[in-house]
Design a protein that fits this description.
63% helix; Arp2/3 complex 21 kDa subunit ARPC3; 5-stranded mixed beta sheet; 23 helices
């Protein structure tokens, strides 16, 4: 029972404190605006901002203090009954409760470091909630006969503006600074050190400069001759008074912008409070100086300055929040850059080594240095489930754990822990840890906060990367946890790399044996290839004797018949000439085939003469007339007669023409168009033989003149070895000319060659 009573003591004290502060601040405000105990609306009403801040910070039952303070203050005014005072207290209480409730629903943060929080606070706390209180208070005053019907709108506006500005100025200052955790110094020496450290900070010095400048400027404005002009003055003096008054009232705005840009959110709310006080104090002093300080005149002047303060406060809070968000983004980017840089450097150092032990030692040292932790270690599980600390980096004041082994198998317990949470993050082991096993472990090694990251190998739990804080609890930041998670992945890869290296070392002897076996096998293959080469040589000799010799014999007989003087022989002379030419071509083709397989190719014998290209083409076409007619070839001979003579072997030149034309006829379907062209190009004559037949693929064109080419891979019109094209290439090359082919499938083929001019 006594315990329950003691628990209520802080709550009752908070309620009483809120009520007293509300009452006293309201009395002071009414005294300042010279309303004293008059039951009128005040444009200056700081209790609204204090009440909202109290409910935000204290939360539980603090609203009762607001209700009590507002009710007692209302009852203290002249002509206000208890019922009217209670209704006024309800309006003030509903104002703060509605504001706090709606802000909570929107995820409001009391630090006011986000623009969305400032906008929500301004729209709900400074616009919506004061509108509710202004409506209730105005209706209450009208029903009580305090507010005349002609002044309802004015009374509502005064109440709303007083509450709104009070909330915009006072609530942020109290909430932002009240939410900050402050550590009380334990000794005077520690207090002096903290004060000295604070004075050396740049922003404290800048705030002191700011405060001195605003006080100096306010004093100069108030004491300048231009300011000492009464409102009753006319003419030039009235003009001077009108020029000085805005400067006096609105000069703090520049200082507020300065504070929002430079002093952060906490500095801004303090500067806003000071600037508002300076503006209000300056206006009141100005009116009192000239004896014009009655309550109505002062209220009108304060109404204008309150509007300015409200706008100034909103701009300052939004600007400070935007700057804070920017700084937060910059901080996150810096953290990300540092994190990525640390991870890259650590990964590089880890992967430089293939030794598993060195990888683990490097990891714990890098992590402890970067996170400034008290202890970082890696424990590894053996096959029985025992844990052994195999790598550790620890601060000197804490006992090491390296080499220790768990007294019993703990692998099942650790697996259960990581099954519940893949990453174990514990900011305070005494408050958050529920596992009995981990509680014993934390007490044994004096661990106040920790992070545990599992390390897996081949799908099973290999070990745990632990980061411990032993001196005090620690709120681990999200980027620290993410960094450890990414680093654990790199450690897993490095461990796999190290284990693979160990396996490679184990396989070295086996690989050497396999290499020796493979070498012996290759030597055996070389012997087999030598045997195959002998078979090839035998085949070449067989071709030489079995093919070449009969052709030579037949050619000798035909030449003997050709040498007879008689005209009457068993064969006509033209037929005999064609047989001889055909046999010569066959012999040269076989010789070319043999040359392709010989080590020293034989050159074609050329006997150049000055000949006419058009005459040689006409003779060749005449000999091929039966073949052209049989295949119904459309011949288009465009070779002019006035071409210069060329230097060529007539026999070899006719063989080239004969083979190229015959090749175009035999390897295309009937009824194609065959076009022959020739032109003088420099010191050469360029001849072209083109058809519109089936063509060949471009990737095969460059192979036709280089070696005997196997036909038949594309269509049925091309069969056999391309020895003729190979021979044509040799003949043209022997004349120091060029020969090329261009073709596309289904678009025809064009072969051109060049011979020198005689």
């Amino acid at each position: 029972m006594w315990l329950k009573q003691t628990q209520w003591v802080p709550t009752l004290f908070a309620i009483a404190l809120v009520a007293i502060v509300y009452f006293v601040s309201a009395k002071l405000a009414f005294t300042f605006v010279q309303l004293d105990a008059q039951a009128q609306a005040s444009v200056l009403y700081p209790p609204a901002g204090i009440a909202l801040a109290a409910v935000m910070l204290l939360e539980r039952f603090s609203w009762i203090g607001v209700f009590v303070g507002a009710t007692l203050f209302g009852r203290s005014l002249d002509g206000v009954s208890w019922i009217t005072a209670i209704v006024a207290g309800l309006g003030s209480t509903l104002e703060v409760l509605v504001a706090v409730g709606l802000l909570k629903r929107l995820g409001f943060r009391r630090s006011l470091r986000r623009v969305r929080d400032v906008l929500a606070f301004a729209s709900i706390g400074a616009v919506l909630a004061p509108s509710l209180n202004a409506t209730i208070s105005t209706i209450n005053g009208y029903l009580a006969g305090i507010v005349p019907s002609a002044e309802i709108s004015g009374n509502w506006m005064v109440i709303w503006l007083g509450d709104a500005v009070s909330i915009l100025v006072l609530t942020p200052a109290i909430v932002v600074w009240g939410s900050r955790s402050v550590q009380i110094p334990r000794s005077w020496s520690e207090l002096r050190r903290e004060v000295k450290k604070a004075l050396l900070r740049q922003r404290v010095i800048e705030f002191a400069v700011w405060l001195g400048l605003i006080v100096m400027s306010s004093w100069m404005i108030l004491n300048s001759p231009l300011a000492q002009v009464p409102t009753s003055a006319t003419g030039t003096m009235a003009t001077i008074r009108g020029a000085v008054s805005p400067i006096l009232q609105y000069s703090p705005f520049l200082f507020i912008v300065w504070s929002a840009l430079r002093l952060g959110q906490r500095g801004t709310v303090v500067c806003l409070l000071i600037a508002s006080f300076v503006s209000i104090w300056g206006v009141s002093q100005n009116y009192r100086y000239f004896g014009e300080s009655n309550s109505e005149t002062l209220q009108n002047a304060l109404f204008q300055i309150q509007i300015f303060i409200g706008v100034m406060a909103t701009i300052a809070l939004v600007l400070a929040a935007a700057i804070a968000e920017r700084h937060q983004v910059e901080s996150l980017l810096r953290q990300r850059i540092e994190q990525d840089q640390f991870l890259a450097e650590s990964t590089l150092r880890i992967r430089r080594s293939l030794d598993v032990k060195e990888v683990l030692n490097t990891t714990v040292a890098e992590v402890r240095s970067f996170l400034n932790a008290d202890r970082v270690y890696i424990s590894v599980f053996d096959e029985q489930g025992f844990a052994e600390m195999v790598a550790e980096s620890v601060a000197p004041q804490w006992s090491p754990m390296l080499g220790t082994r768990s007294p019993r198998p703990i692998l099942p317990d650790i697996q259960q822990v990581f099954t519940q949470t893949p990453i174990r993050v514990n900011p305070d082991s005494e408050k958050t840890e529920t596992s009995e096993f981990l509680q014993i472990y934390y007490r044994m090694y004096q661990i106040k906060a920790s992070i545990g990251i599992p390390i897996y190998q081949d799908g099973r739990l290999f070990g745990v990367l632990n980061v411990d804080q032993c001196g005090a609890p620690r709120q681990w930041r999200s980027f620290e946890v993410e960094l450890l998670e990414r680093l654990a992945t790199q450690v897993e890869l490095a461990l796999q790399q190290g284990r693979l290296y160990e396996k490679v070392q184990g396989f070295a002897a086996d690989l050497e044996t396999q290499v020796q076996d493979r070498t012996a096998e290759l030597q055996q293959r070389m012997l087999e290839l030598q045997s195959l080469n002998q078979v090839k040589d035998t085949l070449v000799h067989a071709v030489t004797h079995d093919l070449r010799t009969p052709v030579i014999g037949m050619l000798m007989v035909l030449k003997r018949l050709q040498s007879k003087a008689e005209d009457t022989i068993s064969l006509s002379r033209s037929t005999l000439d064609r047989i001889v030419d055909s046999s010569n071509r066959q012999l040269e083709l076989i010789s070319s085939l043999l040359e392709d397989y010989s080590h020293e190719p034989q050159k074609v014998v050329i006997s150049p003469q000055s000949i006419s290209c058009s005459e040689m083409v006409s003779q060749t076409l005449a000999e091929l007339e039966p073949l052209l007619s049989q295949n119904r070839i459309h011949l288009n001979n465009q070779i002019p007669d006035n071409l210069p003579l060329i230097s060529a072997d007539p026999t070899q030149f006719r063989r080239v023409l004969d083979h190229l034309i015959t090749n175009a006829i035999k390897h295309n379907p009937p009824e194609i168009t065959l076009t022959l062209r020739a032109e003088e190009v420099g010191a050469e004559v360029k001849c072209t033989i083109a058809d519109n037949g089936v063509g060949i693929s471009p990737d095969q064109c460059h192979q036709l003149f280089r070696k005997p080419y196997l036909r038949g891979s594309q269509n049925q019109h091309r069969t056999g070895l391309g020895l003729g094209l190979f021979l044509c290439h040799q003949i043209i090359a022997g004349h120091r000319g060029q020969i090329e082919i261009s073709s596309k499938l289904d678009q025809g083929t064009a072969v051109w060659f060049s011979l020198p001019i005689a």
